[in-house]
Amino acid sequence: MREAYHVELEQLAQHLAGMSAQVADAMEQATKALLDADLALAEKVISNDAKVDDARAECEEQAYALLALQAPVATDLRTVLAAIHAAESLERMGDLALHVAKTARRRHPDPVLPEQVRTYFAQMGDVAVKLARQTQEVIQTKDVEAARSLESDDDQVDDLHRHLFTVIMDKEWPHGVAAAVDVTLLGRFYERYADHAVSVAKRMVFVVTGKMPGYGPDEEL
Amino acid sequence: MREAYHVELEQLAQHLAGMSAQVADAMEQATKALLDADLALAEKVISNDAKVDDARAECEEQAYALLALQAPVATDLRTVLAAIHAAESLERMGDLALHVAKTARRRHPDPVLPEQVRTYFAQMGDVAVKLARQTQEVIQTKDVEAARSLESDDDQVDDLHRHLFTVIMDKEWPHGVAAAVDVTLLGRFYERYADHAVSVAKRMVFVVTGKMPGYGPDEEL
């Protein structure tokens, strides 16, 4: 039983690594679509989202089968449940990339972002995608050191997000209310994406090592 | 085993009903704090959020124990996993009520909402709280009919939310960018709360009946 459990858990982990790559690509492309007002790329992200949803359903089925057939207990049980939670967060990250792409499409051919805030989004996009790719790396290399920098990367997104708000709220914001509303929601999408990425990576460290970095296993990340 | 399973599942369901009541109260109070610029009430919601987090951790522990000791399979297994997902969504609903309360506190003693949009938030708050209370009712009465109106209530929040955006985006919005940003984020908090409430109620219908209303059990709600 133990061996079958470990083989199946490894398959599930590889599935989650694949999902991490999918949602990293989605956010990378959505950010490019946003920055370059690239409609074709936005459409690509939008049509690809169904694949992320399918991948999540497959991960859940795999996890259910593992629970039903192996009936794991203690740490093994928590590991499978962490994988189920991770799949849910990854799907949500895909949704957030989708929201970014839809915003780019809605305003096309106009750019969504005033010049003044472009670099914020370029940077938030970079860090968000990096976080998702780190998750993939944690799973594939079992190198939990790769997860160490996650907290500080997430802090970076939070800092960018906070600073972005001071720019929008500034009395001299000259781009009007509609642009401020778009920028506000977009900022929130990146912030949430980064939060979920950190949560997934930590859960995957748990899946790989049986220990949750910096948190008890049941604490909300 | 079957009897122990059903007794423990019923306890878990009652726990989730309690969480539904907590997050319904939180959103009701947060909305009142927002509408009346009531600082004491906002503080109450903020300090109570830790109780929701604790309740979620307890629900998860109960679910883990159920899985470890009873090793349910097939529908029974999916039922317990639906309960775990429901607990996660309920905690998220608590967080969203917390965000509303924090917004009210941040602007105190100024009101956050321009007069023009107050009724939108009063209505979104009513429907959001109603959705959470319906979840509680579904669990306690096992009356799945109570869940039927959930979709249309959620549509109502979406309609209010969409309409709210047309008000903010209107060229004659006279309240400035800062108010527009607050209203945008608040609108999003209510919309997400309602989405989660519908998702929880459907999962609880599944927990109570073994059938997911209108969806396959693995589809993202």
TrEMBL record, chains A, B:
Note the InterPro entries from the entry. PhoU, PhoU-like_sf, PhoU_dom
Question: Where located?
Answer: Cytoplasm
* Record GO biological process: intracellular phosphate ion homeostasis; negative regulation of phosphate metabolic process; phosphate ion transport
Keyword Cytoplasm annotated: yes
Gene Ontology terms: cellular component: cytoplasm
Keyword Mitochondrion among UniProt keywords: no
Q: Which UniProt keywords apply?
A: Cytoplasm, Phosphate transport, Transport
A Pfam family annotated for this chain is PhoU
Enumerate the spans annotated as PhoU domain. 18-103, 122-203
Q: At the top level of its lineage, which domain of life is listed?
A: Bacteria
Entry function: Plays a role in the regulation of phosphate uptake.
Listed under subunit, the entry gives: Homodimer.
Concerning its family, UniProt says:
Belongs to the PhoU family.
Q: Which PANTHER family match?
A: PHOSPHATE-SPECIFIC TRANSPORT SYSTEM ACCESSORY PROTEIN PHOU
Q: Specify the protein name.
A: Phosphate-specific transport system accessory protein PhoU
Q: Which organism is it from?
A: Amycolatopsis marina
